[in-house]
Amino acid sequence: MARAASITIGGTGSQGRWLTRAGWLLGAMPVALLLFSGAMKLMRPPEMVKERAVLVLDDILDHGETMAAIKRGLLELGASSVHCAVLVEKRLNTKKPIVADFVGLQIPDRFVFGCGMDAKGYWRNLPEIRAMKE
Description:
The chain has a five-stranded parallel β-sheet with strand order 2-1-5-6-7. Strands 3-4 form a two-stranded antiparallel ribbon. A two-stranded antiparallel ribbon has the order 8-9. Helices cover 16% and strands 35% of the residues. It has a single domain (4-107), classed as 3-Layer(aba) Sandwich (Rossmann fold). It is α/β, with parallel strands linked by helices. The radius of gyration is 15 Å and the shape is globular. It is built from two helices and nine strands, in the order E-H-E-E-E-E-H-E-E-E-E.
């Protein structure tokens, strides 16, 4: 049986619900990104990813740069495969550098909050997803 690991980024509320329902996941670890001058640097997670199938969980896939950087970094660390699951994916008119393997909900290009996503630091803990008025 293949060894597996999951990595969570973004809102932890929805990810906690995902992890409790996915009994096949063997471990979870946080990922930290440093953002400076438009560049991203992946803070290396523990060696748990080497030769493992990794599932990255995130709350939203917007333009895709963050998820693409994380996937590249995990493959460089020796993950045997990297798959991406997002609660929400925004439909944009531009091409994204990554395609999520698993998507809960596709939405138009609107600012959304709830289920782990916040609006100016508020409403992250709402049990539903809401959109700002246009």
